[in-house]
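seq:
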Amino acid sequence: MESLIEILEELHPEVDFEEHKSLIDDKVLDSFDIITLISEIHEEYDVRVPVDEIIPENFNSAQSLYSLIQRLQDEG
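struct:
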């Protein structure tokens, strides 16, 4: 989770990603951020995020994003 928080903080250092639970709903993350995140997740965690997993629920918080990463690693 620490690596994920670091990736997120590189995108938006002004946001407390451990507390913020509506990153998509509050428009903290935009489509370019999502693309960057998907690339960084692939590099850091060696998982590919399938198109059908690119939904707001998976990107609305650091915790939901980390849960997605763990699930994809388990399926991998």
